[in-house]
Design a protein that fits this description.
single chain; alpha+beta; two-stranded antiparallel ribbon; two-stranded antiparallel sheet
Amino acid sequence: MGKELIKVNTKEVKASQYNHLNGEYSKKKLSQRWNDLDGMKVQRDLYSAFLIQHIADDHKSIEQEMCKEDFEKFMVLHDKEIERLRNTTLKPALKNVI
């Protein structure tokens, strides 16, 4: 139905380690669930998904400029979702995580 599946080379992309603001990679422990991007707290998995949405044509790197263009909108949606999760009654244990 007009959809394309793109296989991303996750070992080369390293989305969970990448910071699009400075173009640098920083290795993190799997238990580290939040990224600090210039003072902004960003949930690691949501940010990785954002980065993968901006994969380059080579499927091995991130389009840094596209990320910069879309990041403000992402952060608005990110913060809304984090707030929604904090306020849900389904997860008392999540309040310590989020």
